[in-house]
């Protein structure tokens, strides 16, 4: 597997991802409102904004774990399938990755469910996760950082065209975060389009575009260079503001 966009068919079927007037209501609370934006194939998009601004909800919606209450979500101009939990061609990794009982290898096998066994691919995923000598170890014994690397390797095995990462380093120490971000960059270099929610400047710095939400609404969608670096360092995480010259696009 070269990993370049998993399958070009999947890429062609996913991009661009278009949100047209998308809203998401939970109970009486509109957590996403009037979103109009387009995500093109390739690169890393960082989704930023204060706590509760809707970052996770947006990723869940793109992945198919939730459906828009109103508006349209289109993949390559088409409505996604109604059946199934998650949309095809995608993988999502959460801040806290649950491990199955069993070994590290057992957890990787999960990604191959329904596709038969592929020892070579599992071996490659173990190496990718830096867990080559730990395949037979209980997955429950892994550190948080090792679990996240395993989760990314598992996602890679699924050959996704789109990888959604929900604050992948939020509970990791700096050293573990560096390893995760290295993995993310490698996956992006393989042609996998990455969308990650984050509060961290070092993750935003990896992105080619930054999508900022506030109270469920799109505030900005621009290149990170357009963000004011002074403010990036000086203000509390999650409160990223655009500099005056940031032109806000609905598509970057
Ligand atoms: N299961 C749920 N039921 C009802 N409301 C929810 C649920 N999960 C989240 N919310 C609400 O949806 C809104 C958006 O939450 P979301 O988790 O998407 O924000 P976020 O930007 O990812 O926040 P954080 O930075 O804290 O992770 C918040 O007001 C939150 O309280």
TrEMBL record:
The keyword Hydrolase applies. SMART domains: AAA. GO terms for cellular component: plasma membrane. GO terms for molecular function: ATP binding; ATP hydrolysis activity; transmembrane transporter activity. Pfam families: ABC_tran. PROSITE patterns: ABC_TRANSPORTER_1 (PS00211), ABC_TRANSPORTER_2 (PS50893). Gene3D superfamilies: P-loop containing nucleotide triphosphate hydrolases (3.40.50.300). Residues 17-240 form the ABC transporter domain. Its EC number is 3.6.3.30. Keywords: ATP-binding, Cell membrane, Hydrolase, Membrane, Nucleotide-binding. This is ABC type transport system transporting ATPase. It comes from Thiomonas arsenitoxydans (strain DSM 22701 / CIP 110005 / 3As).
């Amino acid at each position: 597997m070269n990993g370049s966009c998993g399958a070009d068919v999947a890429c062609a079927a996913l991009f661009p991802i278009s949100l047209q007037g998308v809203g998401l209501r939970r109970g009486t609370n509109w957590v996403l409102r009037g979103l109009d934006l387009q995500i093109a194939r390739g690169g890393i998009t960082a989704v930023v904004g204060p706590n509760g601004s809707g970052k996770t909800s947006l990723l869940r919606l793109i992945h198919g774990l939730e459906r828009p209450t109103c508006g349209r979500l289109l993949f390559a101009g088409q409505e996604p399938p109604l059946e199934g939990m998650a949309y095809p061609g995608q993988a999502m990794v959460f801040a806290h990755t649950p491990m199955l009982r069993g070994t590290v290898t057992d957890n990787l096998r999960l990604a191959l469910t329904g596709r038969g066994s592929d020892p070579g691919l599992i071996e490659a995923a173990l190496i990718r996760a830096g867990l080559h000598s730990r395949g037979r170890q209980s997955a429950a014994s892994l550190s948080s950082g090792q679990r996240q690397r395993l989760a990314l390797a598992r996602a890679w095995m699924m050959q996704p065209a789109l990888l959604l990462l929900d604050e992948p380093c939020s509970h990791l120490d700096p050293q573990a975060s560096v390893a995760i971000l290295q993995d993310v960059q490698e996956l992006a270099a393989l042609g996998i389009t990455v969308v990650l929610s984050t509060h961290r400047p070092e993750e935003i710095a990896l992105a080619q575009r930054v999508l900022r939400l506030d109270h469920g609404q799109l505030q900005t969608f621009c290149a990170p260079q357009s963000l004011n670096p002074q403010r990036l360092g000086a203000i509390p995480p999650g409160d990223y503001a655009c500099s005056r010259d940031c032109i806000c696009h609905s598509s970057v």
